[in-house]
TrEMBL record:
Entry protein name: Tripartite-type tricarboxylate transporter, receptor component TctC
Annotated SUPFAM superfamilies: Periplasmic binding protein-like II
CDD domains named in the record: PBP2_Bug_TTT
Keywords from the named record: Receptor
Amino acid sequence: MKINDFQYRLWKKSFRLFNILTCVIGLLPIAAYSQSTSFPQKPITLIVPYTAGGGVDSIARLIVPLLSERLGQRVVIENKPGVSGMVGAQYVAKANPDGYTLLAGNTTTNATNYYLTKSSGYHPIKDFVPLSLWDRGPTVLVVPMNSRFQTVNDVIKELKSKPGSLNYGSSGLGSAHHLSAEVFMHLTGTSMQHVPYKGGPGVMADLIGGQLDLAFEVVPVASPFIKSGRLRALGVSSKAEIPALPGVKPIADIAVPGFQMETWQGAFAPAGTPLEITEKLGKEFAAVIQNPQVQQKMQELGLIPDYRHNNEFKEFLQADFAMWGKLVKDANIKAE
């Protein structure tokens, strides 16, 4: 059967298109490999959703110099505090998913905010890719050094006799500090007034200044003030004593059986970031956490280094997210 000129030209164009598509498809694995090996080509911004000097900020600044060295590009910290870390988390959730804008997240931004705020503006699981855990650690119950409260039981006795008479500061609604106090009140049948801040430094300043009665604070933030004699530590929320605060007993052992709270910190990328990039970033963050000097510094701050990354971090996050949901429900803590 003969074909006319039009049919021949059409066949020729189709054949050329087929060849082009075959070449493009064949090059995709090479392009993906090239992307992962060449990344990063410019500085990376790590968004810390709290004020400078807070717990997340302190650990981010410990990690960033070594991470920059390993990646061969600067990693720049940018603080975007506000609304229990939601301002910074929202910013990263909406960022271009190219690996150049990351979140220094924690229990609050990527777990509890979802349950304690009616609209956080992002989903802590669906809108992020977990890269690497950094650490885990308890909170510590602290009061001013001139406070009349010498023990945890002193605080409980006061709250039993005068419900709602004391206030406490936290890094915001849904923060580990806030939830530590909520669970404490639930287990002791007491009530206190909540005063939220943008970060731990503000809480510490007003606690020392006498504007607050007490606070549940992460150990890296509270420890310097405890050691300098400006704050008194009454107890920790861990199962056992921690080396960073020798002699400070677990609250569960001395006053409130069953009271235990643990927070965590880690790095995230926006959802949609290429797998090759997230895998590389997760491994590099984990390598930094495994550095002996970094681990020693974390332990001195009362933290447990944890370098689970990528899929292992994802599994941890999903379990933690579910655990907090149950805790919030059991303690009857209402979203605001």
